[in-house]
Structures are given as C-alpha cells and as structure tokens.
From TrEMBL:
Pfam families: ABC_tran (PF00005)
UniProt entry keywords in alphabetical sequence: ATP-binding, Nucleotide-binding, Transport
SMART domains membership: AAA
Keyword flag Zinc: no
Protein name as it appears in the record: ABC transporter, ATP-binding protein
UniProt superkingdom: Bacteria
Length: 350
C-alpha cells in the first residue's frame, strides 16, 4: 500500500490521447478517480475503452497526455506506479501450462512477496475468487469463467491501491458475477477502481460513477442515477388494467393524458381485455406536485379501474447509452431512442 494522501485523487488522467497513424483511438480524455470510488467505463466496440486502460496501466505508450497513479507518473516512473496497481486485461492472459496455484505463486514472487506473506496473499486471492476446485488443473483446460477468475486473482493478489479491470465478470455465470460484484464493493472502500463493462446492471450495482466514451471522447460523466435522469423513461409509469370495452380503455387513456404530471401516453393492447399504458413524466417545475406514480395510482383508485400491475421507472441507462453513442449503421445514424425498447435492458454491446 502506498500511504498516499487520501485527499488527492488516486488516479489522475489529463489529455490522454492515442493515435495509430491517422486514426485517433483516444482523443484528449481527462478524469480523476478518488479513493473509495468505482468508476464504470462504458462505450461501444472500438470506442477506446481497452486502449485507455492499457495506457493508464503503462502497457501501451500514449501519444500525448499525463497519467498519475498515487502521484507517480506512469510514463516517467512506471515501476512505482505499477507496484500500486492491479490490472485485469481483456482475455485474462496467463501461462496455459501452469496450474492456477503455480501461476499465483509465480505472480506473488514477481510482486516481491516471500514466505508467509506470499502464502497468505495467494490463499486470500484464491478464497476471494473461489478458485479452490481447479487449483491443480492446467489453466489451458479451464472454462472461460475460471480463466477469468485466475486473472482476477492475480490482479488483487498484492492488495493494490488501484484496480483496473477490463470486463471483470466476462464469462462468469450469474452467481459468480454476483460474487465478483460483492468483492468489488468490498475492495472499493480503500481503493480506486476502474472497470469497463457492457453489463448495465453491473454499472447500477457497483459503480459510483460512470463515463461513457464514444469514438475516443468522453460524452457523459456522472453517477448512474444522473445518467438515467437523462432518459425519457425517468419517472415514467407503466400500468396494466382490465377494461370492459375498448371505449373504456380509450377513456382511461384520455384521463391519464390529463394528469398535470404527464407529458405523453403510449398504449399497447394486451391479451383479452387488458390494456397497458406507459405514462411519461413531464419535467417537475416544483417539489410540491405529487410524483407521477402517485397521481396515476390516485386516478386509478378514483376511477375504479381494475389495475393488474403498476410500476415506476428509474430511467433506462441503455437508452441514454444509445442516445449518446454512434450506431453501427452504414450511414452513421443513431438508433431511435424510443423505438428500441426491445433491446435488453441489462446489457449493451461493448
């Protein structure tokens, strides 16, 4: 551990740029990460996420910019900076002929750990990543999930001040993902952590802050709640109710449109007599007006509607992501942010 000033950012990045010939992969990226923060790094394929992480860790030379880890310049003093970092790159490279236990002992040795310190560090890393069942199997024979966990174990083995992890839950099953997320939250108390991920549920679950990068540039920076606040779906209310006739359903739609907190209403017919309405919230002009969900619930009760389901949205991070990043369409157009509600709300391609 470095014992660095806790009031200073543990990761400081200024003007980070990487060019490959005429192509600009990372374009003047700047941000800080303080102790105790988990930063989610989001972006579509080719946005510059992995390239940025390689430069932050000193594994790829930057074209321009400055990166400091706990006060150490990654370019001019890489050894000091890298001693304080744990890095899980994409693909979790390891020596395939080694077993996990031999590989972790090797990592402990090159990290300068000896004797009981090395044994304790390896044991804790194995426990935290639940590698015990495969410790003596060659890494090349392991599943993708176990290989990923070997990579995670080597990244945390020396208890680094800073963790940089590229897709830390890639290849893990749902239970393993949950365990890793809990581990990240636990470790974040005294570390600065950057993770890249395409799982939006992961951002909401473990990240205090998220950056969205597109074509090498940061296009959004905020807490998950702040980013979801930019979504059309923030505070929207979805209600499914049973009506005797189509006219009754039409009257209900008109009543929902008349609410002072409504900006628009979308209606979809369900099976049989059921109708589903999505009521989108108008911007609140003051704090005295009732939330839209409360207005809808009161209206439904007053009208005697047979409500089968009613819930309020927090906002949709996937919609904000699509709104801020470029699509892969040949004409470069962005996808319609309202019509793509069939996209999985838990994941995006990255």
């Amino acid at each position: 551990m470095s014992g660095s000033d806790s009031s200073a950012p543990m990761i400081e990045i200024s003007g980070l740029t990487k060019r490959f010939g005429p192509f600009v992969a990372v374009d003047n990226v700047s941000f800080d990460v303080p102790k105790g923060q988990v930063l989610g790094f989001l972006g579509p394929n080719g946005a510059g996420k992995s390239t940025s992480m390689k430069m932050i860790t000193g594994f790829l030379a930057m074209t321009a910019g400055d990166v400091r880890v706990c006060g150490h310049d990654v370019e001019t003093d890489p050894m000091s900076a890298q001693r304080l970092m744990g890095y899980l790159p994409e693909g979790a490279p390891a020596y395939g002929e080694m077993t996990p236990i031999d590989f972790l002992r090797f990592i402990a040795e090159i990290r300068g750990l000896r004797g009981a310190d090395a044994a304790n560090a390896v044991g804790l890393a194995v426990e935290r990543t639940t590698l015990a069942p495969v410790l003596d199997q060659p890494i090349e024979t392991l599943s993708k999930g176990f290989k990923r966990r070997v990579g995670l174990a080597q990244a945390i083995l020396h208890d680094p001040d800073v963790l940089i992890m590229d897709e830390p839950t890639d290849g893990l099953d749902p239970n393993q993902k949950h365990q890793v997320r809990l581990l990240i939250q636990e470790m974040a108390q005294d570390k600065a952590i950057i993770i890249s991920t395409h799982i939006l549920e992961e951002v909401e679950a473990v990240c205090d802050r998220a950056l969205i990068i597109d074509r090498g540039r940061i296009v959004a920076d905020g807490t998950p709640a702040q980013l979801m606040g930019r979504s059309r779906w923030q505070d929207a209310v979805t209600m499914t109710a049973q009506f005797s006739t189509p006219d009754d359903a039409g009257a209900a739609e008109a009543a929902l449109r008349s609410l002072p907190g409504t900006s628009s209403v979308e209606r979809s017919e369900s099976a049989g007599p059921l109708s589903t309405f999505t009521v989108f919230a108008a911007p609140r002009t003051d704090d005295t007006s009732a939330p839209l969900a409360e207005q809808v619930a009161v209206l439904a009760q007053d009208k005697g509607w047979q409500v089968k389901a009613l819930y309020a949205e927090k906002g949709r991070l996937d919609e904000v992501f699509r709104m801020l990043t470029h699509s892969d369409a040949p004409d470069g157009s962005k996808p319609d942010t309202v019509a793509h509600n069939t996209v999985d709300r838990g994941e995006i391609s990255a």
